[in-house]
Amino acid sequence: MGTAGNGDARSDNDGPPGGLPGLPPEWGTIIVPDDASALATDAARLRTELRRQARRTAWRRRLGLATGPDSGNPRPVRLALLIISVAVLVTLTSFIAAIRPSRQDSEAAPAGDSGNPGRQLPALDLIGEEGAPVPLRGLLPALIVFTDDCVCTTELNLVSRIVPPGVTVVALTSDRSAQPERPPQSPAAGTRFLTDPATGLRTFLRLSPAPASVPVLLAARSGTVVRVLPAVGDLADHPAELAHLGDR
């Protein structure tokens, strides 16, 4: 049982009952239960709502949003800016991480002179002058001149004069129709003019085409990369490696 009352309860003489002030009329009818445990469900619901409101207020304060009585009407400008800033930062970080390795790979080999020495050459098939496959490892030991976009007559003559006996000289291009001119002199008569249409060897060595660049690969009999030089003229700085290609 409960005692019912309304917001306009008054004594017979229009005074407040028991000397207490009257309740606001907008509260409507109020029922006070005889057993206070009947209010436990409502009390738990109220505590849950208060905790939720406290968490919401704390987060709004951290984000710099309004926390006053009118905060139910949020102005999420700062929150939107924060989300956009984080998204832009993540995107830029991913973009930089994606392009840095490729730029380093494309720039490292032409500028340097190592070409990862010690690595084993892959089992590639090059294309001969008659269109037949030529196994790369069957040419070893070899001095391979990358002749893309180069007539290379002078370079091939120089290589043919300094290469030791037993070492194959290969003029390699990726375009069969753009093979260099054969030098008229006899020293280059033993040079093999081959094609690598898929640029498999360039890719393996991380050699990117560069204007006026004629890199050279020194490959030992065992299939090991001895050195990759950025230009034919640099062979003069490595006479010992050139002389012992057939011994490795």
TrEMBL record:
Region annotation (Disordered) ranges: 1-27, 103-123
Keywords, alphabetical: Membrane, Transmembrane, Transmembrane helix
Report whether Transmembrane shows up as a keyword of the record: yes
Q: Which domain of life is it from?
A: Bacteria
Transmembrane regions listed in the UniProt entry: 79-99
What name goes with this protein? Uncharacterized protein
Q: Which species is this record about? A: Micromonospora polyrhachis
